[in-house]
Amino acid sequence: MASTMEISADDVPYEEEVLRERFKVGTWLRYLSARGTAPLATRAAIYERALRALPGSYKLWHAYLTELAAAARALPITDPAHAALNAAFERALAAGMSRMPRASGTCTPPRSSTSASSRHHHVWTLALRLAGLPGCPAETAVRVLRRCYLQFDPAHAEELVAFLVTASRFREAAEQLAVAIDDDGFRSAKGTTKRQLLLDLCEILTKHPDDDVAGMPGIYNKARDVFEAGAAAAATVKDFGLVFESYLHFEHAVVAAELDDAIQEEKSGSVIRGCWLADKDDADLNMARLERLLERRPEMLNSVRLRQNPHDVQAWHERVKIFKNDPGRQAAAYAEAVRTVDPMKATGKPHTLWLAFAKMYEGRGMLDSAREVFRRATQVSFKSADDLADVWCERAEMELRHQNHEAAIELLRQATSEDADMMESHGTVESACAVHERIHDLGLATPLLVLSDAALLRQHSRFEDAFRVYERGVRSFKHPHADPIWAAYLAAFVERYGKTKPERVRYLFEDAVRQTPPEAKKAVFLRHAKFEEEFGLATRAMKVYEGATGAVPVRDKLAVYDAYVARAAALFSVAKTREVYHRAIAGGGLTDDNARVMCVRFADLETGLGEIHRARALYVYASGFSDPGAHPDFWRRWNEFEVVYGDESTFRDMLRLKRTMATAACTGVQAAETGAVKRPCAGQQVEGCGTLQTECKRMRVGVAL
Prior knowledge:
Oligomer: single chain
Helix content: over 70%
Largest sheet: none
Keywords: mRNA processing, mRNA splicing, Nucleus, Repeat, Spliceosome
GO cellular component, one term: spliceosomal complex
Pfam families: HAT_Syf1_CNRKL1_C, HAT_Syf1_CNRKL1_N, HAT_Syf1_M
Radius of gyration: 50 Å
Number of helices: 37
Strand content: under 5%
Domain Pre-mRNA-splicing factor Syf1/CRNKL1-like C-terminal HAT-repeats: 343-418, 420-678
Number of strands: 0
Domain Pre-mRNA-splicing factor SYF1 central HAT repeats: 158-211, 219-341
C-alpha cells in the first residue's frame, strides 16, 4: 500500500499537530476522522505514518485492518488487495498483535498466521471454522484440530477422534483414543466414561483389522489390554456382555486376518516361506488366545457378580467350581472368600464356605490344614448361633470319620453345655460361672442354660449375680424364648425384695412391661397386680389392672377384665365392681361377643342385688349388637329373666325389640351384599326402638351410677 499522499490546505492544522505530538494516538485518530471521506490510499498513508510512530497501538491496528478487510471483501481472491491485507496482518502479528485476538479475527488469515496468533481462545473459533470448511485439506484440518483439542482443550479430544474416523484415518483415531484412555486425568467434555472410550477403541480395531491400524506396533496387545481392563471394570452383567462380545469379535477378526495373510503368502510362492527365521505366522497363537478367552468367560462373569456383591456366598461357591481342576486356585478362592465375606452382610449361609474349605483339605488328606480352618471358623461371629453349631458339629464329625474319638468328644464338650453341667456337678461355683460366661460369649447360650446358671447362683446366695444373669438373659432372647426367664426373674425378685424394696420391684415390673410384646404382657400385669395385693396397696393393684386393660391385645382383654372384676369385688364394694363393668362395656375395647358376655354378667350382678331395672337396661343395651339368629343364647337368657322378673309389658317390649333386631340384621346382610352396609353403634340401635327409648335412657343413668 502506498505510503505517500498529497497534503491540502485543510490538512495543514492536523499535520502541524502530528508533528508536535506524533506519539499520541488521539492526534492521529482526529486526523483520520477529519479525512474520513478520503480515498483508501490516502487514509492508508496516514495509517502507515501513524503505525510507524506507534507500532504497538491496538486502536490503530484494529481500525487499519478493519478498513483493509472491508475493502478487500468484495474483491476476488486474486486481487492485490488481499495480498496487501495479509501483509498488513503479518506486520500486525509481528508488532505484537498476536496478544490481541479480536484484532486477529478481523480477517481470515492463512493457517500459519492463525498458528502465530493461537495463544488466545478467541482465535480458536476462527481456526475451527477454517478446519470445518468443505474445501479445507484434511491434513490442515487435522493439524488445527490436534493443536486445538490436544494442546489447548484436551477435554474435546473425542471431536478430533470423530473427525479422524470420518476422514478414514483409523490409525490416528485409535492412537488418540488410546492416549485418552491411558491419561488418568482425562475428563471428557461430553461426559463419556472410560468404558465407552474402551468400547469405541475396540469397535475401531474390530471393524478395521486390515487397515493401517494393524501396522501399529503392539496395537493388538494394546487392544487386548483395553478389553481386559473393560471386562475387569464392568459393574453389571450387561456391561460385561457388551465388552466380552466385542473382545470375542476382535479375536475372531485377528484370527481371520492371520489366515488371510497365510493364504496370500501361499499364493505368492515365496522361496523363504517356511523358514523359521522368516516365519511370522501367529495363527496358532491367536487361535490359542481365542480358545483361552472362551475358557475364561465363566471366571470373568463370576468376577462381575462378586463385584456387584462381594458377600454373595453362592457366587463364591460357583467360583470354586470353576477351578475344579486346579486345587491351588480352589484353595486361593476359598481363602479369599472367607476373608472377604462379612457374616452380617452375607447373602446365604457364610459358614458353608468354611465347611467346604475344610472338606477340600480333608479330601486331599491334609487334616492339619482342615483343623486349622475349623479352628478359625469357630472364632467367627456368625449371624446365627445355628451356623456356629453346624461348624462345631462338622468339626467333630471329621474327627469321628478319622477315628479320633477323644478329639471329637473334647470338641463336643467345648461346644455344648455338657461342660457347664460337669462344672456345676463337680466344680466350684466360680468355674461353673466361667463356663457359662464363655458359653454366652460364644453365642451358644439357651434359655435353659440361663435359668440353670441363675438357679446355681441363687443356691449359693449370690442373688445380685443371679439377677445380672437374668437381666442378660432377657436382653439376649426375644419372645417367646424370654418368657420363662422373665417369669423366673420376677418371681425371684419378688421373693427377695418384695417386702424390703417394693419400689425396686415395681421398677422391674415396669421394665418387663416395656420390653415384652403385647401378646406377653397379660402374664406380667397379673404378676404385678398380685405383688401389689400382697406387698402394696389395693388401689395400686386396681391401677395395674386398669393399665393392663389398655395394654394387652383384644384377645386377652376379657381375661384381664375377669380378673379385674373378681379382685374389685373381693377388695372393694359393689360400686367399684360396677365401675369396672361400666369401663369394660362402655369403652374397654372389647369385641361384640366379649362385650355381650360382660353385659350378661353385669346384669346377673344387678339381678342378685335386686336392681331389676338396671339389669333390664343392660339387656336392652346388649341387644343392640346381638342378632337373634346368630346369638340365641343371649335372647334365651333375657327371656328367662323377663319370665322371672318381668311383666306382660316388659315381655312384650322384649319381643318387639327382638323382632326389630332380626329385621335390622336382615337389612344389614342385604346392604353388605351391595357393599353399602354401615353398622351403627349399640346405643343408636337401642334408641331407635321406639317404646324402649325411655328405658334406654334410664339404663344409661343406672349404669353411670
